[in-house]
Amino acid sequence: MPASPDDDAADERLRVLRSVIDANRFMTLATADEHGTPWPSPVWFARRDERRFLWASRPTTRHSRNIAARPDVAIVIYDSRTTPDERQAVYIEATATQLEGEDLDSGLSAFSRESLSQGLSEWPRERVTGPAGFRLYQATATGWFILADGPDERLPVPLP
User: Fold this and answer.
1) pLDDT, tens digit, 9 for 90 and up, residues 48-101
2) Can you tell me whether residue 79 is helix, strand or coil?
3) CB of 31 within 8 A of CB of 38?
4) Is 138 helix (H, G, I), strand (E, B) or coil?
């Protein structure tokens, strides 16, 4: 059966989403505290797979404390160097958590792999456990959107 126009549109949205994510190294992580007060934070990220995004932060930072109180987060990934006519962004609804145990080991492997591929340092377990100041966090996407051609309109992207 030939692909429908809806299938073609979904494929194109997924292509745009992947290209924006692949072209950028930072994401804006939006969290909220127990009272709902929002707080955005730019963080360097690595992808574990299509749906899971990783970053290292200190548990004492405001966004980390917010995640401990309220794990629902929003993420925006965009290239701020583009013009308004060229702009594109990925908007992600997600649930965030601090990784521990086996999840920490597999997450750290993906995080280190991305860090090394960008000419940065490796992240051994000792850098995110015990007395170390950082911990590894993960956001798991529950919804994805990209910008539409119209003003401030977002198009849903089916999760693969």
Assistant:
1) 988 999 999 999 999 999 999 999 999 999 988 888 877 889 999 999 999 999
2) coil
3) yes
4) strand
Element (H, E) at 73: strand 72-78
**Burial level of 131, CB count in 10 A (0-12/13-18/19+)?**
exposed
Rounded to two decimals, the pTM is 0.91
40 φ/ψ angles, rounded to the nearest 5 degrees = -90, 145
Q: Per residue in 125-153, pLDDT tens?
A: 999 999 999 999 999 999 999 988 766 78
DSSP label at residue 114: H
Please report where in the chains the tokens 């080991």 appear, as a residue.
105
Rounded Cα distance between 132 and 130, Å, is 6
Structure tokens at 59: 């548990």
- 154 pLDDT tier (thresholds 50, 70, 90): confident
Burial classification of residue 47, based on how many CB atoms lie within 10 Å of its CB (0-12 exposed, 13-18 middle, 19 or more buried) = middle
The SS3 of residue 28 is strand
Exposed, middle or buried by CB within 10 Å (0-12, 13-18, 19+), for 48? Answer: buried
